[in-house]
Every structure is written in structure tokens, then in C-alpha cells.
Amino acid sequence: LYGRLSAGDQQRVFSPSNRRKIVIATNIVETSLTLPGIRYVVDARLARMSRNNPRMRTKRLPVEPVSQSSANQRKGRAGRVQEGICIRLYSEEDYDARPPFTQPEIQRANLAEVILRMRAFRLGEIETFPFLNPPAPAAIAAGYALLQELGALDADRVLTRLGWDLARLPIDPTLGRMLIESQRRHATRELLIIAAGLSIQDPRERPLDQRAAADAAHRRFSDPRSDFLGLLKLWDAVHDEWERLRTQGQRRKFCKSRFLSYTRMREWQEVHAQLSDALGDLGSVPLAESNADYDAIHRSVLSGLLGHVAFRQERNVYRASGNRLVQVFPGSALSDRAEKPQGGRGEKTEPETRAKSRQPAWIVAGEIVETSQLFARTAAGIDPQWIVELAPHLCQIAHRNPHWSVTAGRVLVDEVITLHGLEVQNRKVAYGNVNPADATAIFVRSALVEDRLVPEWEDLSEREDLKSDRVKPTASALRASAAAVQPAPARHRFLESNRRLREKIGDWQTRVRRHGLVDLDQAFFGFYVQRLSNVSSLHELDRLVRENADPGFLCATESDLVGNLDLHYDPDAFPDAVQVGEQPVALAYAYAPGEEHDGVTVRLPVALAETASASMLEWAVPGLREAKLEELLRGLPKALRKDLMPFAPKIAEIVRDFQPSAGSFLHDLSRFLRQRYGVEVPADAWAPDDVPRHLRTRVEFVSPDRKVVASGRDLAALRASLPKAKPETRGENPAWIGAARQWERFGATTWSFGDLPEKIAVYEEAGLPVYAWPGLEEEAGRVNLRLFRAADPARRSSVAGLGRLVELALQKDFAWLQKDLRGLAKLGPLHLGWISTDALQSGAFACLRRHVMPAVAPSPLTAAGFEAAVAATRARLPGLAMQLIDRVGMVLQARQQALARVGMPAAATPAAAKPKATTLTDLRLLGVPAAKPAPGPTASMAQDLAALMPQDFLETTTFDRLLQLPRYLKAVQLRAERASTNPPKELERARLLAPQLQRLSTLRSQTPRTEAGRMAADEFRWLVEEYKVSLFAQELGTAVPVSVTRLDQAWEKVGGSDR
Fold it and tell me: Quick one: average pLDDT of 796-824?
């Protein structure tokens, strides 16, 4: 038994019966119906209550516990005729905790109608009215807000003319607002029916056992566009039939056959008649108008339900005001009852856009009710433009994204109109009508300064780059397109003049880059802004140009933009091209601070990737050499900088006399400084990455179809990133095979090649010459002459090949050197039990051989160059063995002291450096047990010793670096001493060192693949040793400046990662 049950079904409760009846009822039995003969009442303590949510402006129907008075009312239903029993399904404590009475309706209802009546009857303010149960302030505020939304109250909460009319209508203000709006739109007949229907309970019935039949009968009255039109259809069908039927019995039978409530249909007619009379009292008698169209009806409906609009999010889900998601009520004609497609893999499913096309994008709902979720009931599709027309007092307007539109020829702005947080309209309007000053600034910057003013003589349909406002053409593209079309009209000639001036100044600035350079964009902006006011469209610009007496008033001059700056430069200092091999390659200059392409860019064909020299590219622009040298010299450590001060005269000499080779630029520069000024600059002292980007040449590798395939300022990294050519490409070329037969030689033991050219032109490819570079290759103790595809691999291989030939030429000298190294035997007590004397002598010879051999092969390879290398090596040999013996002695002495302090025996071999059994006498070393390092800091120091002094330390340490080993070992000794006296300090410094040790561990597990990578790794390794000295033994001093920042920079050179 419930309120919406049909009358016939409700009557079954009252029919007499000899059998016991069990009635399951809502709280309708508390007040509306009295049933005789009730013996038992089972109270489940719950009821669905109607509540208004003033903040969300929704009607809520929550299920909640009843009050004590309602519970007593239920109990009273039992025992009216005879003794009865009430069973409560809750505890007595629960009953006692409930409020004594149900909350009064005035505290649960929408107060808009109450406020309207009080205003009309002059009963005073609702806030001060002596209610027995005053409503909440939030409910009162919501009532005022609704009346102001309807136009019944003004901003001062005074009744308007519309408000007086609404107060005279005996209906909810929202429905009354619809009726008044319908008179203006000639839809009064329809809105009287709709308003009356919305004010009563839905007359359509759905008996439990006949739901399908009821739904089929009601479907005749539905309209897929609108539930409001469904009410009209229902009214028209019933009204026409009732005119034919004369008796109440016939009408009842008609309603029953169509599952309609006769009582509610009568109520509908009565309310309709009352509303018609009320409208007549207002002086507007509804006429027998012709049927109103959809727009007129729903504009009228919308006028009273502006707070109940929503736009579609997904199937059956809409977003309403307050960012609420509401569901279309399942019984609505707008509800999409189709099953969601369940297509599996490979199965085609019906696109969701079909549901979109059936359901309107925007709807208005007669009410938004919260039960199990938020439902929009009695809904209809609307045009959001109607909202803007009906609610200008509620809509908020915001302007966003002002921009120059080349297609519209004016500055536009997105005008966004919102209602209760919903974006109702988003359109583009002329920004000049909104903010003339800002629109002028945008027009000047985007259309004139950025050269995006599209003259009217261009065919926009052919301009692909201008079809969308989201595309911003580059200045170069616009200049190219401007040159391709016919000359501009006379009124736009100032654009061509200013464009030429910009190119002239820009070309000077990109090359010279002196102090006091101007931002051309800002200079042109200031120039135009001084001459233009309230101009934000092409039309307004044309009108201003026509009306101005001076036709050249918008033509800028050099003084307008750069003042008294001299714009001349030496073209030899900033050439347009540079030679790469035998090929001239163009240079491009760009003044774009902070951008990737800032500075000088050389565009190289991919075919020249191996030909290009990084040193040559760095020295390619004479006009930038002084600035580049100054930055490099200022980046040196202070001790080295002092020896080169003052910079200015020395930089001038270097620029005049220094000519780098095809090898390493910084290596050549170090050699020049040593020869000219006697200043030795180690490779790790340079900081090339600190040089400003615009002073470092940028390279672009271009494919045959002129597409950029790689770009950057590190030539070696760019080469590595290029796709590898097929190994057989040149090897199978007949010209290459012929050149190899002509030039290559194998198994040489002395110089028998004569004088070799630096490079050989083999053939041409894509119009460019392909070269081969002769180089020496060591193989099994002998030397081969081979042809290489690039200069760098040829030079690197030639170093080893040349060294082997020099060694063969100096066999007797090296034999004496080995005899001299027998003096290492006197150091036996310092390495006893750790490394054999034979192994020590072998490592010493390898160390000296590396030291005296040529570090760079001459280019080109000539017999004279070979003889010079032999002579230079022979000159370095005398006395070298004794120097090495002295250095090794100092190193071994320092090792022994460090081991003693760390607490390890001198014969101990840390686990990180197991001895190698190289001879029979070394086999005994394998049996020496390794002393276990003590836990904590001592273990770390033992690892340091193992890394510094492996058994093959002479093979892994250069002759020059041997001088530093005693200092590193002394640092380990001092660290051990201080760790025992101040452990917390030791732990703190160890934590600072830990990240660098982790990096070293990574290096040991990932050997660099390139020579440059190996050099960078070696540099980082020794820099970490200097860092240890700075942490644990500062008094020893460091050979080079060291800090965490410098370590990070060195690690970046390695290409490492801290992941």
C-alpha cells in the first residue's frame, strides 16, 4: 500500500475477508488512510521524507528514522476495534534517542512561495516573523535567490511588477513564471496544461502486476524530445475523448483502460480551470491560440526552471549547476534504454555517438530529486542560447584568450557565458569592443610586429598555414610567401619597408652581438604603439592609413629602433660559408637568446658527417674567436688564470697566430699556450660547457631531401646518433676497392710508405667528393697501412701504429731501458708478499713505454714525421728509468704507511684486487689470505687502497699521475687517524663522498665505448681522488680545483646517470 498505487488496488485493503491480511505499507497509513481490524503493527522505524536542499536546490527524498510522535501514531493503528500488539524492530534506547516530533514542513520545504506571499500581503520580513518553528537562514537565502532568479525580486529584495503578478497566481512561483512568459510567446494554452500537470501528482499509474501493459499504454503519450510535450499529448488525448464521453462511469472506464488515475485527471482539469481564472484576473485572458511551436513552449518552461539546466556528459548522465552529475530519470522519454555494447576483441561495437545524436546536448528538468542518486525528472531538450536571452541577470561573462585572427582580420577574444558554473556559450567576439587598449597592443604585436597581417589581396583559401588560428607561421615563411605574391597595395607599403629594415638590423645583430643590442620586436612594438590608438583590425588600420596626411607615418627608420648604433660589420669576420673538406658549407646566424638555434649554425649533409672537424667548426667564425677565447680563459682555475693575465693582449695574439689542427681544439689550444707562454693547462682544467651557447657552433645534419636528421653542439654525439651506414657500402664500391689495392700495405716493421697524402679523393656521391684517409694499424706486432673512411679514426689508429714502428726502430734503446729497470729490485721490502719483482718491472716498462711514445700521429703521415717521432722518443729515454724508480719507491712507501694505519698487513690483498699468477714464482701469492677489513670506515679505506694500488697499478697509472699517488695514499692514512679520534666527523664526510663512490661503481660496471668516453671516465676517477683529499686531508692541497659542482660536470661528460 503506497500513495501512487491505483485506487482499485488501494480498495482491496478495505474489502472484507475471512483470511488474515498482511499489508506492507509506507507511512501513508499514518495520516491518510485508516484501516479497520488491525491487530498487529510491525514498525520498521523508517520513512521516506521530503526535504529541500537549499544549497544544491534539489528535492531530497531520503529514508530516515521516524520521530517519537510518528512511532506512536503507528502504534495507535493497532487495537482500535480489539486489543492489538505493536512490535518495534528497534530498541527502547533507540526510541528514546529520537526527536519527539517530526520536523515541521516549513523547515523542510522550499520557502520561495512563502516569501512571495509574505511580501505581497505585507506580513514583514520572514527572518523576523514569529514562526513556532523558524526556518533555517540557508533556506531563507535560497528562497530569496530563487525569487531573484525568476525576476520576482530586484537586487534590493523588493517585489517587481512580475513579482506582484506571480503572487496573485495560486501556484508555485516557478510554474507561475512559466505562465507569464507563455503570454509573451503566445503559448499560454500549452503552458496552462503543463503548469497544471506539474502541480499535481502524475496521473499515470503502473500496477505492480501490469507494468508492461501500463508502459505500452503510456508510450502513446510520450514525445522523444520532451516530457513536457508528453503531458500535452496526454491532456489532448484525454480531453478530446472526455468531450465525447458523457457519464463519469464511461470516463472512469476510459481512464482505467489506459492506466490513468481518474481522480488525478479530474484534479488536473480543476487546477487548469483555476489557473485560467487566475490569469483572467491578471487581465490576460488566454485566447484560443493556434498550437505554439517547440521553441515557444520550452522557452516558457525554461524561464521558470533556470536552475535546473544541465548539459550532457555521457549516456543518460548530465552535469547540472554546482558541478553535480544527474541521471535522466528512467521513466523519462529522453532516457536511453539501449544496452551498452559488449563487443569483445575484434568485434565491432556501435559507436557511442549514436546515443549522443538521440539525446540532446542540453536539457531542462521539471525537478531534480535525490533518492538513490540525483535524477532529472520531466526533462526536455533546449537550446543554450535561450538561457542567455532569458537570464541576462544571472549569466556571468568572462573574456579569455585574446588573439589576433588572420582569417577574421581582427583581434578576437573568447567570450564565455556561464550560468551557475555551467558554460552556456563560448563564442569569438571582437576584442576591440571589450578592451580597446589591450586589443590595440595585441594587434600591434601579433599582426604588425610578428608580420602576420594578411593583406586583403592574398587568397586565404590557398594559404594552408593560415587556415587555423592555432597555427603561427614563422617570420621566414611569411617573408617567403610575401615575396611570392603581387606587390602590396600602397596603403600597406610600410610593411615592406619595415620588413627590409628588420632584416638589415637583424642580420647585423645576429653576427655582431655587441652590448647594447635591442630587442627588435619590442622596438617595433613601441614604434607602432606611439602611432596607433584603438586599432585592432585590418579594416581600422586601412581607415587610419587613408585618413592620415603622411603616407609614410608608419615607416620606421634606423634611429627609431636602434638610436645611434653603427650597423656596419666586417664581412670577413662573419663569413657566409666555411670549408668542410673540399665542400663549402653555408653558415646561418641567429640572434635568439635562450633558443636552441641561437648563434651560428652550420648545415652539413649527412655524407660529410665523418669529414667535419669539431676543431675547425669551433674556429670557423673569426668574429667570435675573441669572445670564445675570453670565456675559455676565464673558466680556468685561478692559478692558471694568473699566469695568463692580462687577457686582452694574449687573446689578440692567440687570435692572430693560433691555427687549430683537425684534432682536438682544446688540446691544440693547450699546446699553443705551453709553447707561447709556458703555461701548462691540463685537459681537465678547461670548462667548454661553461662557454655561452651562442659562441659554440651548432651543427645540423641534413639528409639528401633537405630534412634535418640531427642537430646540436656536440659533433661526436651527433655522429653517434646518425643511422649507421651499411658496412659494405664503400667496401663494395669499385673505386674504393681500386684505391685500397693502390695504397694499402701489410706487415711493415719499418717505415716503407714514403710520404702519404692527408686524404685521397676516391669517388663522388650525390655531387660531393668521398675521401679516404690513410692511417697506420697495429696488428700482431706488425703495422699495416689502411684506408679509413674518416679522419678521426685514421688518426686514432695511427697513434698505435706509429708507436709500434718507433719501438721497432728503437729496440736497442728499449732493451737498455729494461736493464735499467732492474734497479726496482732494491724496493723489494716495500712490496714483499704483495707483488713479484718481475711483475713490478714488467708494469714499469709498460708505463714508460706509454709515456715516451708519440701521443699524436703527424698529419699527413710522412717519412720526416716518422723520423722526428723516433728522435723525440730517443731524446726522452735517458734518465727516465731512474725517475720512475724514485716515484715507485715513494708510492710503495706511502702504501705501506697507509696499510699500517688502516690496520692491514703490507702483504694483504683486498678482495677488490686479487693477485694475478703470471709466473711460477707468483703462485705462492695466491695462498696469501686476504685480511678482512674492519667494519665501518676502515672497510671503506681498505677499498680505497685497493682501488689506488692494484697489483697492476703501473699498467693503469700514467707516469705523470705517479707523482700524485703518494698524496692520495697520505690522505687515506690521515683519514684513518682522524676516524679513530672523531668517528662522527668521519661518518659525516663519508656521507658526502658516498654519491661519488656510487658513480665510480657504475663506471666499473659500464666501460665507456669511445675514446672520449674513456678519457672522461679517467678524468672523473682522478677528480674523485682529489675530492677525497679535500674532504679528509685538506692540508695536503689538491692538484686541481674540485667541488661537487665540478664533479657533476665531469660526470655529465662521462654521460653517466644517477638513476
Answer: 86
